[in-house]
Design brief:
Helices cover about 70% and strands about 0% of the residues. It is mainly α. The protein has a two-stranded antiparallel ribbon with strand order 1-2. The radius of gyration is 23 Å and the shape is globular. The two termini are about 35 Å apart.
Length: about 230
């Protein structure tokens, strides 16, 4: 599990450094014309109209500094823990059959006559089926999302340029003094619940997406492996 966590995290950090500016451009483009502070209903988020991705990159670099393109990158690096945690937990559950395997053992204790009780050990090394990867992926994504969701909220605020403290502006930009301080400010203003606003829909979307993806992955992997083995025997 440790190896999965470390490798997954390092891969995520590399991807963040390369794609960070594109995420900021995507957020700015989406929020054009959206009133985020209630001060002017006709005013866009940043006061700038972007004509495309390249134009947005150039405008932000010129007016706010090239390093601003990586605004929120520190939180993105932290958020690389999300897929790392998911992969680590998923592989641990998969290798040791902690959820489905233990559930079957409990069912065998409750219903000893169950026909599957006699071959529990055999199931541990065979085809993972559909239920096990679905449940493992669902649970692992649930854990990773719960751990990192508050940081996702702060990252969105960073990229959108939304001010998080009252009357603190400088050249139309939010003043961010560090994600830890901002996290504490969010807790002070909105409480712990504020850090998990919108979590329900996020969990449904990400957990279901992850579960379906891993089911398809495991089934295709099993099918392709069986096909390659059959081809080698011919």
């Amino acid at each position: 599990m440790i190896v999965d966590l470390v490798v997954g995290y390092l891969a995520g950090v590399f991807a963040v450094l390369v794609t960070g500016p594109l995420w900021l451009v995507n957020t700015r483009s989406k929020l054009q014309g959206v009133n985020v502070d209630g001060s002017d209903k006709e005013k866009s988020t940043s006061g700038t109209k972007y004509r495309g991705m390249i134009h947005c990159l150039l405008v932000v670099s010129k007016e706010e500094g090239i390093l601003y393109l990586w605004r929120g990158t520190f939180t993105s690096i932290i958020l690389s823990l999300n897929p790392a945690i998911q992969l680590g937990v998923y592989e641990m559950l998969k290798r040791h059959h902690l959820l489905i395997g233990n559930a079957r053992k409990i069912m065998c204790l409750l219903v000893p006559s169950n026909s599957r009780c006699s071959n529990i050990g055999a199931d541990r090394s065979g085809d993972s089926g559909t239920l096990e990867p679905f449940v493992n992926a669902l649970f692992s994504k649930f854990i990773s999302t719960i751990c990192t969701y508050p940081i996702q909220v702060i990252q969105t605020q960073h990229q959108a340029g939304i001010q998080t403290t009252n009357n603190e502006k400088k050249q139309g930009q939010a003043i961010v003094r560090g994600w830890i301080q901002e996290l504490m400010q969010n807790i002070h203003r909105q409480g712990i619940r504020g850090l998990y606003r919108g979590l329900e829909s996020k969990l449904i979307q990400t957990c279901l997406n992850s579960a379906l993806m891993f089911v398809v992955y495991e089934r295709l992997k099993s099918a392709l492996t069986a096909w390659l083995v059959a081809e080698e025997k011919l």
